[in-house]
Amino acid sequence: MLPELLTKKIKESAISLGFHRVGVAPVEAVPDSKLKRWLKLDYHGEMHYMSRQVEKRLDPSLVLEETKSVLSVALNYYHNYELNYDDRNSGVISRYASGDDYHKVMETKLKALLKKITELCPDAKGKIYVDTGPIMDKYWASRSGMGWIGKNTNLIADKRLGSWFFIGEILINQRLDSDAPGSDHCGSCRRCLDACPTEAIVEPYVVDSRLCISYLTIEVKEDIPENLRRSTSNLVFGCDICQDVCPWNRKVEPSREESFIPRKELKKPRLKNLAQLTKEDFRYLFQNSPIRRSKWRGLMRNTAVAMGNSHNKEFIPDLCKLLNCSDAMVRRHAAWALKEIGGSKAQKALVERRAIETNSQTRDELKTLLETETSNL
Ligand code: SF4
Question: Is the pTM of this model over 0.70?
Fold first, then answer.
């Protein structure tokens, strides 16, 4: 089949499977300077997987030897509801995480698309990727004309889709008809740079992940640096701020994908309810949800920080429970939150915990907090 015709039929199949955009790029080496500089500056933080397999990241033919084309697809996950950044009794969960886990949804569709491709072209071989493996997904999506990488480093398609979509790829051993690369429409806008509470967009098109609230609440497995805790406000899983302020995201149509309909309890989760989840509740509530990634201890840590940022004394009993839970990292964040809320009850709980604390790091932090607290009272 002629490459033009094969490409046309593949694109029609992708759209009929429910993808919202599809594009094709020829395989070529990815310009390496940006990634290498970003890694050299340690902007990937604890995401050590980013610094592994760099050569493969820069050359898909090292991933699948006979790759000739990269097919990129986009799946809209947007749902129009307010994220309650100002309601200190509730937490904010990133929109992408309010529905089902996108990996499975994307993989199912991509497998169906690859099956269709091999029916159309029996010699075709392909490999699918969804946010896994050494593939520079945003680069390939922009190279295949699906949009441009904005100053907030998200891929932006257009006004109908904005940047609210997941990206997937199929590496294919067939030469397909390529699309022209997307062009940049950020212009002189810098809303995302100005809105980021931690100034994580350190220059246009460059994010220092170590400052990014998404990274801090999801990727960091142990303690959130103390100097950044206040800036995370009530965000308990991920952050959409740089997308919410982007003018290209104002009129995006809601996703038709049923799996991404936000779970009611995740649109505006009460901090109290989150703090009271047992490990078993967590596993039950977040089955097939991206939030599983944070594990119970990550969500409790983030919830404790959000409670501390609320300065709401009603949270003291829940924080006291977390202060005495079995996980030392959660205990440290509950202690920090109690100190932020302050008052005699919080102080008493910290003193009592210090008397029985066996973890040396936590004991040291309790000591420091109590010294600070005492001088504040
Ligand atoms: Fe680009 Fe402005 Fe959107 Fe940032 S907010 S990604 S600068 S258009």
Answer: yes
